[in-house]
Amino acid sequence: MPARPVLILLAGLSLAACAREEVPIDAGRALFVENCAVCHGMGARGDGPLADGMRPRPADLTQIAARNGGIWDMAAVMSRIDGYRQEGGSMPEFGAVLEGPTVMVDTGDGIETPAPQPLFELADFLRRIQEAAPPGAPPAIDAVPLVRTTPGGG
Ligand code: HEC
To answer: What is the pLDDT of residue 31?
Structure first.
């Protein structure tokens, strides 16, 4: 695997300060590069090699929280990637690709929900790359409790 950009490393370091039990950023990032970058682009800005031909274009995944009023909705994002939550368009379903051992994920409501670990790691990578919400929107990422994973059944 080629050397990872220093930027990612720095992002990981600054996040480490407030991390509890977090999966390594690399797992989710590797899944992203492998499965998503072709459409969403290496920087997740919706500008991958396939993007130009697509209508609608792939979403800018650094702005998911900003588009949602500054709120990171972990459950909604995981459902969207998984394919459980369909919205038409050409975003493929990745449920089958992202299967794996089950982890218990607190998606922010205090209730732990079982989820496949690769799906969670990918969604958590996206959470880490969210950019600040536009001025006026409520503060985004810092307000969202960090997701805790504990080994689950399966
Ligand atoms: C074949 C191209 C393609 C691939 C591959 C792809 N996507 Fe998408 N994705 C899209 C398109 C197009 C949209 C926006 C239109 C739509 O909603 O269907 C989208 C939308 C999304 C959204 C919704 C964003 C929002 O703000 O609601 C998320 C989240 C997402 N993709 C994540 C992923 C992840 C994670 C992967 C890799 C596992 C991935 N996508 C792979 C094309 C793709």
So the answer is: 95
